[in-house]
């Protein structure tokens, strides 16, 4: 069976959000298959610096290097480190836009050997950069309480304790090594719901997020974008589940001064005494794909795009003070 081709989600909306222009410098923090990068490079005579922690991304990037010589660079690393990664490779000027497409890529899901899929048998891995603690390590070594927390908080699984208990009982007989071994254990204790979603979905999501520290990486990436964007530069963040969207929504609201904590009855001089907003919330509400895109690309159904524009206020330093 041939894997489905990778289709960038909300592509037209992301391009519009970035307001791509000739001479601009843009960061694609989650290169993946290069869909956003290619579209940005084709939209204007600009430069794109992409980032990906997956070692296989460098191979996927070669056609773009040939098609856009001198205008495209792919850096190996985590997008959460963009504020230090870019200067270390000679990109010292503020950038005009940052695009982030959060979560696992379709190529990683489709490749059974990467261990992300509960529908295909493969090693229980899930590491985006093929280094560090794997999903098998977590499943076989974490105690029952830690497993339950991971599955509950990151997987949003209501039966997390039941699943964690079943995992601990099963691994006492034999350590988990394969994806389908874990999926079958989960399916034995969690019934298929009316929504038709596979019972293993949420457990696999929780483990994947924990293994790759995806929410922490998103928080670091948002702060990194804040540090490197020029005044007027745009931030476009595409998320695929509520945990990711909540992080992006909270960050943009806080940085744009929309925390809701200041009453309209408070004197202006008091209300204005707080830190100046570093972003303007452009989208205000999340942008969702239309029905046509959802029909053409089922993976787009849960996607949300949030857009913010950088102001000229200094970014907070690591200790929270303005730089």
TrEMBL record:
Where on the tree of life does the source sit, at the highest rank? Answer: Bacteria
Q: EC top class, in one word?
A: transferase
Q: Does the keyword Ligase apply?
A: no
Q: Name one GO molecular function term.
A: rRNA (cytosine-N4-)-methyltransferase activity
Q: What are the protein's UniProt keywords?
A: Cytoplasm, Methyltransferase, rRNA processing, S-adenosyl-L-methionine, Transferase
Gene Ontology BP, a term? rRNA base methylation
Q: What catalytic reaction does the record list?
A: cytidine(1402) in 16S rRNA + S-adenosyl-L-methionine = N(4)-methylcytidine(1402) in 16S rRNA + S-adenosyl-L-homocysteine + H(+)
User: Methyltransferase: is it a keyword of this entry?
Assistant: yes
**What's an example GO cellular component term for this entry?**
cytoplasm
Q: Tell where it localizes.
A: Cytoplasm
Q: Quote the record's binding site residues for S-adenosyl-L-methionine.
A: 34-36, 52, 79, 101, 108
The UniProt annotation puts the region (Disordered) at 287-323
The record's principal subcellular location, in a coarse class, is cytoplasm
- List residues traversing the bilayer: none
Q: What does this chain do?
A: Specifically methylates the N4 position of cytidine in position 1402 (C1402) of 16S rRNA.
Q: What is this protein called?
A: Ribosomal RNA small subunit methyltransferase H
Gene that produces this protein:
rsmH
